[in-house]
Amino acid sequence: MVSFASRKTRQHAVLSEDFERELTREVLRTELLRVRALIVTGCVMTVFLTAIYLVDPVVVNRVWRGTEGLAEVYGLLVGFILFEVWVHTQIRKNLKLDRDLPVVRRYIGALIETSLPTVILILQIRTMGASQALGFAVPLIYFIFVILSTLRLDFWLSTFTGFVAAAQLFAVASIYDSSSFGEPQTYFHGVRSTIILICGVLAGSVGAQLRRQFAASIAAATARDRVTNLFGQHVSPQVVERLMAAGTGAGGDVRRVAVMFVDFRGFTAGAQSRTPQEVVDRLDGAFAVLVDILDREGGIVNKFLGDGFLALFGAPLEASDAAHRAVAAGREMLTAMGRINAETSWPLRIGIGIHFGEVVAGNIGSPRRKEYTVIGDTVNFASRLEALNKEFGSQLLISASVREALGKDGDDAVALGEVEVRGYEQKVAVFQLG
After folding, report:
1. Which of 179, 278, 390, 415 could form a disulfide with 274 if both were Cys (CB 3.0 to 4.6 A apart)?
2. Is pLDDT of 324 > 90?
3. In this structure, what is the dihedral angle of CA atoms 145, 151, 157, 162, given to the nearest 10 degrees?
4. How far apart are alpha carbons 423 and 382 in whole angstroms?
5. Is the pLDDT at 2 greater than 50, yes or no?
6. Are the beta carbons of 353 and 261 closer than 8 angstroms?
7. How far apart are CA 127 and CA 135, in angstroms?
């Protein structure tokens, strides 16, 4: 019991580690999107200023009092773009290494980015005057950084961005526009900074909600991957949904299941005269049909065994009519193979053995890779039963427990008597169907 508990704990830790890794990757991807948007914004602002200078230099002289102030803004924008390019390369590097950015670096980056409008505003105050500059377009640039901070998917980082923008704008207004500071003007700057701070909080709330949605999507994908890893790729979407809703469990449940072994007779001999690709294509085509039948009857393929497979009915999802489902699937498989063989130059004959009884069902394997399987005499006997098809020249054999579970549905079963089975001291009753 202790061993099982520790194994379950290790598995949970691995799943949590995978979840956190994938969530970190999603956050870094949105960070890349945010940085690209800032780079594009910087380039657009540079092109816009250049276009204004070329089209109407008078406007530039009026705002910047000549090209010297404009050159300083150009220098700031170019430096900002280069900084964001460097940030972009760092994020990409961390993304490749599956490593998150340090928290301190995120806050320092937010401080540097949000300070750009402040520096531009101070330069503009020197040329235009405080009242005109504070009422012009530069204070609106803060909102670009606040809005894009949503893509950080971090409430506190967005709030920090809004706080830095609000505090710096209010500080600049207090220092450079102090001569006109009266009660109305104080309220004006205070309300504007408060609105910026509120926008930062709202951006953080939206980012946090997006992060929760990302986390939910990743958790669902992780659960799907876990189901696929445990039960293989050949599980119907319906079964996957039910497994995710019910939970797969991690250990040692005793269940009554119908175990089916399927094997292609004479396949090895037929494969010797054909190319490997022809062999694979033929096998895949036959498996596709048989697995589709299993899906319809509520069974799953637990293992592929070369030119055969082990299928389960009643595990991992319980089924009160597991034996009926297994036999129905076996009958349909025979019909389907007969139809396929009539249309191909390489007919395949299958052998099926079905036994019904108790097994121990659970997940077995390493902490990083587990496989759902069933263990017990029921599995062994089903395998021996399928092998008897070669001896009797039959295709579908069932055990006495399956015959009993079928009731009237098994009236067409032909009793083959008490049969010696390899590995068993006593003879057992065997029945033939189909």
Report:
1. 278
2. yes
3. 30
4. 12
5. no
6. yes
7. 14
Tell me the DSSP string of 18-46: HHHHHHHHHHHHHHHHHHHHHHHHHHHHH
CB 356 within 8 A of CB 399: yes
As a whole number, mean pLDDT of residues 8-17 equals 48
User: Is the distance from CB of 326 to CB of 385 less than 8 angstroms?
Assistant: no
pLDDT score of 388: 92
Directed axis angle between helix 103-128 and helix 57-64, to 10°? 100
- In contact, 414 and 421? CB cutoff 8 Å: no
Task: Give, for 230, the enclosing helix (H) or strand (E).
Answer: helix 183-231
Q: CB within 8 A of 334, min separation 6: which ones? A: 350, 352, 395, 396, 434
Our CA angle for 235, 239, 244, nearest 5°, is 110
pLDDT at 239 over 60: no
Longest dimension (CA), the chain: 110
pLDDT score, position 9 = 43
Coil, helix or strand for 361? strand
Q: Are 227 and 240 in contact (CB under 8 A)?
A: yes
Q: What CA–CA distance (Å, rounded) separates 410 from 199?
A: 72
Question: Encoding tokens for residue 32?
Answer: 């890349």
Residues 6 or more apart in contact with residue 115 via CB below 8 angstroms: 164, 168
- pLDDT over 70 at 368, yes or no: no
318 closest CA partner among 231, 225, 246: 246
Greater pLDDT, 182 or 399:
399
Q: Which residue has the higher pLDDT, 16 or 135?
A: 135
Q: Helix (H, G, I), strand (E, B), or coil: what is residue 352?
A: strand
Mean pLDDT, range 91-98, rounded to an integer? 88
Among 264, 212, 254, 248, smallest CA distance to 390 is for 264
Amino acid, single-letter form, for residue 244: M
Residues contacting 245, CB < 8 A, separation 6+: none
Under a CB-based contact definition with an 8 Å cutoff, are residues 355 and 259 in contact?
A: yes
Contact 353, 383 (CB under 8 A): yes
Q: What is the pTM of this model?
A: 0.55
Rg of the chain over all Cα atoms, to the nearest angstrom: 35
**Is the pLDDT score of 427 beyond 80?**
yes
Which pair of tokens denotes residue 287? 């498996």
- From the list 312, 210, 299, the residue with the least C-alpha distance to 259 is 312
* Amino acid (one-letter) located at 336: A
